[in-house]
């Protein structure tokens, strides 16, 4: 899983200033790669299913599926996937904390 921070540099000058995009562009590629790799397989699986649901995936063996969109809609899909990933990672941490607290209460 690799995040291409140069993706947003292809936008036209007419786009709205986005401080998150600017922040991402300032990050070292190794930092972005490390963060992307930190997602657990469970989080990746949920994000995959979410994106497939948004795109309406049909079985490739029975259909010749092509998805056409514009940059804005693709950006919205990326933002949705990023927010889903962030949310899931936070919920994973909360689950671990709840489990640890439950374990200490049993002692």
Summarize the structure.
With 107 residues, the chain is an all-alpha fold. The protein has four helices and no strands.
Jot down its keywords.
mainly alpha, flat, single chain, 107 residues, 4 helices
Tell me the layout of helices and strands.
Layout: H1 19-26, H2 29-37, H3 41-55, H4 71-106
Notes on the structure:
With 107 residues, the protein is mainly alpha-helical. Helix content is 64%, strand content 0%. The longest helix has 36 residues, at 71-106. It has helices spanning 19-26, 29-37, 41-55, 71-106. The chain has one domain (7-106). Helix 3 (41-55) runs antiparallel to helix 4 (71-106). The protein is built from four helices and no strands. The radius of gyration is 18 Å and the shape is flat.
- How many helical stretches? 4
Give a quick account of the main beta sheet: strands, pairing sense, barrel closure. Answer: none
Number of strands: 0
Low-confidence stretches: none
Q: How would you sum up the global shape?
A: flat
Nearest-integer average pLDDT: 80
Strand content: under 5%
Q: What structural category do the secondary elements indicate?
A: mainly alpha
- Straight-line distance between termini: 40 Å
Radius of gyration: 18 Å
Helical fraction:
55-70%
């Amino acid at each position: 899983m690799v995040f291409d921070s140069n993706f947003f540099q292809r936008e036209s000058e007419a786009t709205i200033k986005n401080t998150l995009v600017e922040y991402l562009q300032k990050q070292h590629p190794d930092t972005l790669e490390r963060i992307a790799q930190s997602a657990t397989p469970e989080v990746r699986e949920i994000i995959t299913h979410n994106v497939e649901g948004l795109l309406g995936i049909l079985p490739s063996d029975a259909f010749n599926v092509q998805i056409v969109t514009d940059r804005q809609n693709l950006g919205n899909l990326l933002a949705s996937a990023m927010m889903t990933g962030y949310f899931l990672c936070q919920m994973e941490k909360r689950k671990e904390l709840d489990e640890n607290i439950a374990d200490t209460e049993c002692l």
